[in-house]
Design brief:
Residues 24-192 form the Glutamine amidotransferase domain. The chain is of the alpha/beta class and 196 residues long. Helix content is 22%, strand content 32%. The strands form three sheets. Strands 2-1-3-4-14-13-12-9 form an eight-stranded mixed sheet.
């Protein structure tokens, strides 16, 4: 059973449909008390970090996520919210994945980073199964987690940044697996198969 956390800061339908295509029946939950009843959870996110983090704290999600002992994955902004802090609004985040989120230094490239990009596997993990250098995924972001020991997979756009991170039972994907065709489908299946 998969929970998709609805904090009011995400377009959750595309994530729900992606899991349904894998034969799952995810449930969108709106109350932190529901989280403990699920085997896996997704924290999606679109929008501004400070607004999203404020909602997580005010609505009781911070404690529920902190207490959760099973696989939980953030997508896009959801991944960033699992980290220690973000420069976007200069806010403290959930602190479940070590590292800080900073504005991408894109140089002469356009920002936000939007479109398909390659991945580099930094460290083998259950979540990276089936990935190679020829695979591309779909990004939309202007902030990113800096590469550190939690980084499983990195991307590059003006600078290197974390594309997939993991720490304990928490993981994150900076890109949108639900919009990343066969590669994204494989990565979501990897999350379903991930055993702690």
């Amino acid at each position: 059973m998969i929970a998709i956390i609805n904090t009011g800061c995400a377009n959750i339908n595309s994530v729900r449909f992606a899991f349904e295509r894998l034969g799952q029946t995810p449930e969108v939950i709106t109350s932190p008390e529901q989280l403990k009843n699920f085997e896996r959870a997704i924290l999606p996110g679109v929008g501004h970090a400070s607004v999203a983090m404020k909602r997580l704290v005010e609505e009781g999600w911070q404690q529920a996520i902190n207490d959760y002992q099973r696989p939980l994955m953030g997508i896009c902004l959801g991944m960033q919210l699992l980290c220690d802090s973000t420069e976007e609004g200069n806010v403290q985040c959930l602190g479940k994945i070590p590292g800080h989120v900073k504005a991408l230094d894109v140089g002469s490239l356009t920002s936000p980073h939007m479109g398909w990009n390659n991945l580099t596997v930094n460290r083998e993990h259950a979540l990276t199964k089936g990935l190679d250098a020829n695979k591309q995924v779909y990004f939309v972001h202007s902030f990113a987690h800096t590469v550190n020991d939690a980084t499983l997979v990195s991307g590059e756009y003006g600078q290197k940044f974390s594309a997939i991170v993991a720490n304990d039972n928490y993981a994150g994907m900076q890109f949108h697996p639900e919009r990343s065709a066969k590669v994204g489908t494989r990565l979501l299946q990897n999350f379903l198969d991930w055993q702690l």
